[in-house]
Design brief:
Length: 251
């Protein structure tokens, strides 16, 4: 079984709670509509999001009671996110899961992930090197062959020491909580449990919706230069019905 863990920001530090809820539900449905139904989704949150659909017991919401960030500052919101992921990992440690995947609340995943993972249970896990970037509301999507966002790794539970509590010693011994998505591939390789590259685009990073925690798309400085512009054009594709179906990309 593959378990997705999602940390949802609080309404108190959201620019638009309706948009945050809508994005979460789209993310949730992309994980929920896996081809192989043997999966679990855990959402850790302060407030219940505004959802339009109902879900079975494969989706579990955990409400936290610690204070949300006092203001919208990246350091504070990221600390809040990791506290929620820690709580999610304690819960997953109580379940009989084969793989875990951290999933940002505004990202989408391929509906093939659980099928692929459940068919390859002896693998340490996978790193997503190829995915998509999508500008919220656009009819186009960008193919990213150097994909790196919070939804980029599937890790076998056998190589993880799950925390049994939230004390710092337990947390420090859990490799996926100790290291962020930017270095998890290198850290697992150094431990002798390297991840394999996922052989298909595994996720979609959605940006420019007004509530991104990452600062990656808070400016347009990365879009300058003729060569860079032409490279973007070559990797941009029309948003097809097949991509929409595979990633539940429907707004």
């Amino acid at each position: 079984m593959l378990c997705f863990i999602i940390a949802l920001k609080s309404k108190k530090v959201s620019n638009n709670w309706e948009t945050v809820s809508k994005l979460l539900e789209t993310s949730l449905r992309s994980a929920y509509q896996q081809i192989d139904p043997d999966f679990k989704i855990i959402v850790v949150c302060h407030e219940m999001p505004q959802l339009q659909y109902s879900y079975d017991d494969r989706v579990e919401f955990i409400n936290v009671d610690f204070p949300p960030p006092s203001k919208i500052v990246t350091d504070l919101t990221m600390k809040d996110k990791w506290q929620k992921l820690q709580i999610g990992m304690v819960r997953v440690g109580e379940l009989n899961t084969d793989f875990i995947m951290f999933m940002d609340a505004d990202d989408l995943v391929s509906n093939k992930l659980s099928q692929y993972a459940n068919s390859n249970k002896s693998t340490n896990g996978w790193i997503i090197k190829k995915g998509y970037k999508y500008r919220y509301g656009s009819s186009w999507i960008y193919i990213d062959e150097h994909f790196n966002c919070g939804t980029n790794a599937i890790v076998n539970s056998q190589v993880i020491k799950f925390p049994k509590s939230l004390n710092s010693e337990d947390i420090s011994q859990c490799v996926v909580l100790k290291h962020s998505h930017t270095v998890i591939e290198q850290r697992l390789a150094a431990l002798g449990t390297p991840l394999t590259v996922l052989p298909f685009p595994g996720a979609v990073y959605i940006h420019s919706h007004g509530d991104n925690d990452s600062s990656l798309y808070k400016s347009h400085k990365s879009w300058y230069g003729i060569r860079h512009f032409l490279g973007n054009v070559r990797r941009t594709r029309f948003l097809t019905s097949n991509i929409k179906e595979e990633f539940s990309l429907n707004f």
